[in-house]
Specification:
340 residues; alpha/beta; Rossmann fold; 2 domains; eight-stranded mixed β-sheet; two-stranded antiparallel sheet; 31% helix; 13% strand
């Protein structure tokens, strides 16, 4: 009796990238056909494996999963009888990966947000102080290194304390650094405010990427006219958002984001802790939390309860927002003549 050739049986890859690479190879074989004798550009390197990372030549967009979502199909790629997949030309692929939007910086400045052209006001100086300790932790080496320290969650106890205002300003301030790129993620899936604040519209985002394995994160990233700033929308609302963000796939995506690009800081604008369970789940993935506390409003019992729900992250920094400063005549920014 002939025994089956076990060596010919393909073992299903275990990692997300390997599974996606296998899907790409199957899809390419299905609609491209046998390889011609003429040399062709290899898909994902000479060996056909997925590259370690891609950088868009048109700008600083980085791809977490460096594979084309259109060349992937759920559960094993294209099966018998399936319709042929459309070819994606290099120009179409470039266009997909190069979406760029213009942020109205004048409108932001009029609403008291920081911009690259912001004068050294008191608020600008205060955010410089806030970001410095976060950046030191983000890129610490040796015994003091923090796991996923470059992933920062911005949240609060309850709505209305100014977390999105602080998240956007923190991202703007960090994007002004010469050696740092910033990815601002709108992770408040129930009430996404980041893109609305910046005057940008988008459909697909974080939740869609986690829910759909065939979707490439690169298709959802948005470059901006601020050189070091990219955006990731929240995506569509889903009844299982918390479960999706707690999934293994979310963990893989977050780990890849954290480790693939050594100069990147990722800021998550999260829902308030006492209003949504999403913040507690996101706290499992990040290395630092910037916790916004509204002066004269947030009560100590609320604060203690909220902090206990995100205690899985050991590095929590409190930021007192909307406080009335009365420490003297001189304030940050007054040295430059812009103090108010």
């Amino acid at each position: 009796m002939d025994l089956p050739d076990k060596a010919a049986e393909k073992k299903r890859p275990e990692s997300l990238v390997e599974r996606a690479a296998e899907k790409m190879a199957k899809a390419a074989e299905a609609f491209v056909g046998p390889a011609s004798p003429a040399p062709a550009a290899p898909l994902g390197g000479a060996s056909g494996a997925a590259p370690a990372g891609l950088s868009n030549a048109a700008g600083p967009v980085h791809v977490v999963q460096p594979l084309d979502g259109a060349a992937s199909a759920p559960h094993g790629g294209i099966g018998p009888g399936a319709a042929a997949m459309p070819r994606i030309t290099p120009d179409e692929r470039k266009a997909r990966r190069s979406r760029r939007v213009e942020i109205d910086l004048a409108s932001l400045a009029a609403r008291h947000y920081l911009t690259p052209e912001s004068e050294p006001t008191a608020m600008a100086e205060e955010f410089r102080i806030v970001k410095r300790s976060l950046l030191l932790n983000a890129f610490a080496k040796g015994p003091g290194a923090i796991r996923n320290g470059n992933l920062i969650l911005v949240t609060s106890s309850q709505p209305g304390e100014g977390k999105t205002f602080c998240a956007v300003n923190l991202a703007m301030s960090m994007a002004s650094e010469r050696d740092t790129t910033v990815l601002l993620v709108d992770a408040d899936t129930h009430k996404p405010e980041v893109l609305r604040t910046l005057g940008i519209e988008a459909r697909k985002g974080l939740v869609d990427v986690v829910a759909d394995e065939s979707l490439d994160l690169a298709d959802c990233l948005i470059r901006t006219n601020i050189e070091n700033l990219a955006l990731l929308p929240a995506g569509r609302q889903h009844n299982l958002t918390t479960e999706l963000l707690a999934s293994e796939r979310m963990g893989v995506i977050v780990e890849d984001i954290a480790k693939r690009y050594p100069d990147r800081v990722v800021i998550f604008d999260s829902p308030p802790v006492l209003a949504s369970s999403v913040a507690s789940v996101l706290a499992l993935h990040v290395g630092q939390i910037l916790f916004i506390v509204e002066a004269e409003r947030t009560r100590e019992p609320q604060l203690k309860e909220a902090l206990s729900l995100v205690s899985s992250c050991e590095n929590i920094n409190l930021l007192l927002n909307k406080s009335r400063f009365s420490g003297g005549d001189k304030k940050f920014g007054s040295y430059y003549g812009y103090g108010t």
